[in-house]
Amino acid sequence: MGSERMEMRKRQMSVQQEPVSSAQTQQGPGNRGPNACCFCWCCCCSCSWNEEGDERSRRASHEIRTDDTLNCEESAKPTVEDVRSWGQSFDKLMKNPAGRNTFREFLRTEFSEENMLFWLACEDLKKENNKSVIEEKARLIYEDYISILSPKEVSLDSRVREVINRNMLEPTSHTFDDAQLQIYTLMHRDSYPRFMNSSVYKNLLQTISEPPSES
């Protein structure tokens, strides 16, 4: 009886081990099961494809972002009258390319250059007539200056943000008009008075007012 029981136990153990060995063989390093294949496709093939797509999108966006609005505007050397007029009116300052460049230099020292960049981007958008270009530029402006995730986000109130979000459903060249006006007013009331008392403005006025030295 003892030997029969031992024999039966050996048979039971061999039967229990067979499925385990079979499962291990199917899921060995060289043989992935259905779940492993699915996981591989989702986390390897799919993600690598998405990374390539994201890279293409970033390159396309970079090409559009590297327009003239992100670089200093071309402008003639300002005259004494030009520089003095900037102190008379913020409108005169903003209508003068050299004035905008000088004011932008000052904003950079206050870490608020994004206000001028946003204003310039809106001006550039207003010049567009092509619908697809307008939509793409509007998207980039939103990502760069409106999105709360952007490091260059400008300060806008909730009402203006709601208007922008509605306008973004069908972007036009005037999608950001309310926001542009608010940022213009902010620069006028907040930054402009400090600019007038800054070394950036005073040094320029002094330099340009000095008579040329005789050789």
Could you please describe the fold and organization of this structure?
InterPro entries: RGS, RGS_sf, RGS_subdomain_2. Forms a complex with G(alpha)z/i2 subunits and mu-opioid receptors; the formation of this complex results in mu-opioid receptor desensitization. Interacts with OPRM1. Residues 89-205 form the RGS domain. It is found in: Cytoplasm; Membrane; Nucleus. Residues 1-10 have a biased composition (Basic and acidic residues). The chain has 215 residues and is mainly α. It contains 10 helices and no strands. The protein has helices spanning 2-26, 34-65, 80-88, 90-95, 97-109, 113-126, 131-146, 158-167, 177-196, 199-209. Helix 5 (97-109) runs antiparallel to helix 6 and helix 6 packs antiparallel against helix 7 (131-146). The longest helix is centred in the N-terminal third of the chain and has 32 residues, at 34-65. The radius of gyration is 33 Å and the shape is elongated. The model is unreliable at 17-69 (pLDDT under 50).
